[in-house]
Amino acid sequence: MSLSTEGLLFRHPGFRLGPLDFTQRSGRLVVIGPSGSGKTTFLRLCAGLERPEEGRILFDGRELSGPSTFVPPARRNIGFVFQGLALWPHMRVREQIRFAARCSIETAEAWLDRVGLHGFGKRLPGELSGGEAQRVALARALAARPRLLLLDEPLRSVDPHRRADLQALIRDLCRELDIPMLAVTHDPEEALGLGDEICVLEDGRIRVQDGAAEICRNPRSAFAASFLLGASLLPLESRDGKVHSPFGSWPAPNGSGRVFLALLPGDLEPAGEGPIATVRDRREGLRGPVLEVELSGVRLLVPARDEERPATVALRLRGTPRLVTGGDGG
User: Fold this and answer.
1) Strands 28-32 and 15-23
2) Edge-to-edge strand order for the sheet containing 276-285?
3) Of 156, 167, 172, 231, which is least surrounded by CB within 10 A?
4) Distance (Å, rounded) from C-alpha 224 to C-alpha 226?
């Protein structure tokens, strides 16, 4: 089963999404981007809750939205877990599932058991924690046996220490039911924990779409490197088909816009010789003391070798350089 879009465009005053040419190539895809990037609008277009201005949305080759086609939401057989969950406050948990999926009491209770809520059937939404309410919304969406599951910020209301369990549950259910999942989030950790494929959205456009592991190794986009991985971006000079940095020169990558060296924690270390950075601060990090240094106007973190805080430090680049492109590095 596959979801795809061709030239998808949606606009309203002050906002534009697309045009998007997109194909979901794997079972679990996460779209990540900042507020206002178009993530939720994209989900609503897929569900049929919004109509595109131009372009097509297809599922398994069947056109759901197009110039002369619009399949209404109720006929798309798509499960949608909204950011606000949309649980009916007057209806008990078991009845929420029965009403949405038109199933028996036994089936509703089985779904509650599957999401870890055995014995919760008679509770009202107001009696649930954020994580419990999220599990009810998930069970309600899946009990109807959708062909595609859409999730809008699925872990937003979940306590941090419970998120890993819910991530694992979502992944397991999608595998068991053999249905694709499309989730959106602004949280990089959530995206990497949920998706085997990630699509990075910025200002209504796709900046990069690839496997989660490949994006971590080679983000390509300056925005993907900074937003998703938290990389610092060192601007490079392009000349004679190469890019030049304080650490050396390399062939210029393909792509438009400026070129940056994306630096993650651990990519740099103090050395006996190399580019000299100014030390701005020294503090404790998760893996020991670190120095906050400034090189070419960019703040970077490097491991501290001893208890001192020197005025300057020479740096060495470890591993293969990550070269990324972007219009302005943002």
Assistant:
1) unpaired
2) 268-270, 312-317, 276-285, 288-295, 298-303
3) 172
4) 6
